[in-house]
């Protein structure tokens, strides 16, 4: 994921917390260290029944949202607004192990409508 400063970052879940980290480059040779940015308490955002199994499925940088998989489904968390929405309810033995967030785009100068 992109860090708040635009550099390289990552997100990880440990217990009931979501941690975001960023790579801080030190010196001209590109050496750097990882620094913790923020901690989000998922027990304050998700129902208590969903805290037993937590995993980060995907991160969408432009919208700053994280997709969290739980034992009952998938939640989208807006990190900026700290709002949560359940987008998938798991039924039976189906597990979703990964998500690829997709946003549509239009390249300037591309003809979309045929004018002939």
Task: Record the SSE blueprint.
Blueprint: E1 9-14, E2 17-25, E3 32-41, H1 42-45, E4 55-60, E5 65-69, E6 73-78, E7 83-89
Antiparallel strand pairs: 1-2, 2-3, 4-5, 5-6, 6-7
Short synopsis of the structure:
The protein has 116 residues and is mainly beta.
Mean pLDDT: 79
Query: How many domain units?
Result: 1
Give the biggest beta sheet: 4 strands, antiparallel
Q: What strand order characterises the main sheet? A: 4-5-6-7
> Percent of residues in helical segments?
under 10%
What is the CA–CA distance across the termini? 43 Å
Q: Approximately what portion of the residues adopt beta-strand conformation?
A: 35-45%
Number of strands: 7
Estimate the global geometry from the Cα principal axes. Answer: flat
Task: Output the radius of gyration.
Answer: 18 Å
Structural class: mainly beta
Elements, N to C (H/E): EEEHEEEE
Task: List low-pLDDT spans.
Answer: none
Number of helices: 1
